[in-house]
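Quick one before lunch.
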Amino acid sequence: MNLPDLNKVAVAMVTPGKGILAADESTGTIKKRFDAINVESTDETRRDYREMLFRSAEAMNYISGVILYDETIWQNAKDGTPLIRLIEQAGSIPGIKVDEGTQPLPFCPGETVTVGLDRLADRLTKYYAHGARFAKWRAVIDIAADIPSATAVHVNAHALARYAALCQAAHIVPIVEPEVLMDGDHDIDRCFEVTRHVLDEVFRELRLQRVALEGMILKPNMVVAGKKSPKQASVDEVAHKTIRLLKECVPAAVPGIAFLSGGQSDEEATAHLDAMNRIGQLPWKLTFSYGRALQAAPQKAWSGKAENVPAGQRAFTHRAHMNGLASLGQWTAQLERKAA
Ligand code: 5MM
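Model of the 2-O-methyl-1,6-di-O-phosphono-D-mannitol complex:
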């Protein structure tokens, strides 16, 4: 492992004013997104859509890195330029999702474990040779009456650390993503407790498996109430509880934290990030690594039509710009409306 090089990439991924575009939807997930805008999901429409994003010159000024899915990293743009080169030409770092999704966890009803460790070392070598400089692995933890179990938290944390160590051995910066879902009816304090348990376990495993914290990025959920909870928290409460939790659990050696949006509305995800960055002196950089909260608007504006590409790029630029401002604690609701 060359730690100074890994650290350089990790620091660049959380450059102030920029964040990460999570464009790593697997084939099933992108189909769901395209179904919502009445676009057939084919390798060509997926290519056209992602080409539109990566050629959004202005938006890419706010994007430090792009997480790709395996299909995309090998795909060429319409004119034959590899999509990965478009990202590099835009001054952004290409990354790759390397988990292979979730599988039911035996004897833990309703819970899953993320898989994909077999042959991961070989896959990482190929991705590095092709230009990927960081990777991502997402563990999924659900909250309900009797879950998460200690078993699910442990096996997912163990797999995240195994993945992170393999990445660093292959000169790739791991994004470690333990996502506590916001699907339930739990309140914000239950989310706080579960996320604390998960992050404690993840950092224990990272240490055990000798992962260098200076050469990784954490991608956590924010501390929020479940979507079905009657008691939704204010922006201020989300920001303060998330920062309190992260200060308890995340060592200062980690260069940056890039949040997932998890199903929050576009504006909520931006407002929460902004409020956290306004809290002041923090040990790590805080930015975004959004999928839905960056892409819902451009997907709608594009709707699969070539003539809508400029509109799709404008919508993407707007969200990337607003989140770039939020990473600096400089976003306002007025700016959101003015620029829209
Ligand atoms: C872009 O979506 C990624 C998930 O794809 P699959 O479920 O198809 O593997 C996802 O991991 C994403 O990177 C993160 O959850 C952040 O996305 P959101 O939409 O939560 O910001």
